[in-house]
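Here is one chain, start to finish.
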Amino acid sequence: PSTLYPSALADKVAGMDLDPGFDDIRARFNLNLGSSGSCDLDFYLGLDANPPTFTDIDLVAVALHELGHGLGFAAAFNVSTGAEGLGFDDVYELGLEQHGVGPLATMANAGRVAATKDDGNLHFVGPTVTAALGVLTAGVSGGHIQMYAPTTLEPGSSVSHFDLDVSPDELQRALARRAAE
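Its structure:
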C-alpha cells in the first residue's frame, strides 16, 4: 500500500491487466543509428552478445536493459530534488540504501539527493540481492550490490544502473559504462 509500482509489475502483482488500454512497456529504437553520418555508432544485430567493434551496440542487450527499466529497475523519485513521485515511495526505492546512513525510503528529499551522489555507497539491498551476488567478482560491498552514484549527478543514469565497478558486466551496468567511456 502507498507504494508506486511500474505498470507491468503492478499488473503482475495484481494478477490482471490494471489498465487494458495502456501499453505497460513501449520500446523505440532509432532505425537511423549510424546511417545519417552524424553518429558513428550502429546496432549489432547478432545474437552472440559479441559486437565486432566498440562502435557496434548490441541491440539484444539494449532491449533487455530497457525492459529491465520497464519492469521497475528505475527510480520514480526525482534524482535532482529527491522528491518522491506523487509523494509516495516507489518499489525500487525500497531496495536502495546509502551505506552507513540508511534506506532511501526513510530519508528526506535532501538525503535522497546526497545518496544519489555518494559514489560506492549507494547500494541495492535485500535477501534476493544477497542470494544472487555469488556470480559477481567486483562491485559488491557487505552483501549488497553497488549502484551507479557518481559525485556529479547524471540524470537518466545515476541510481538506476549498477555501478561501473560491478563485474562481470551486467545488463544494468553495460550501457552506463559505455556512456561514461
